[in-house]
Amino acid sequence: MIIDRDGNTTIITQETASVKTLVSNIEAAYDTHKNYHLIIKLSSLEQVALEEVVEFLRLSNNHRADKKSFVIVSEKVDLDLVPVEMVVVPTLQEAYDIIEMEDIERDLGF
Question: How many domains would you assign to the chain?
Fold first, then answer.
């Protein structure tokens, strides 16, 4: 797991661990990430199954409930199958765009 900070955003990049291990590692260190928007990059994986994306559902719901964005980046996920309450985009730039839009929505009270 590679962790980078860019302003008020933390980018966590998948290395070699399984998605379940990555979710566990993020949850274990959650206190250090809870005040930042989170981008989870799964780009290094050959394949990403829907079941693997759903592993992030609880973490995503909790983070978004605290008024912070949670975005998964993977071009290997069928976006039509992703649960509505999750945000998955194919590129890092789109993840930043989503965070910016969600910040504007929060500022406007939506």
Answer: 1
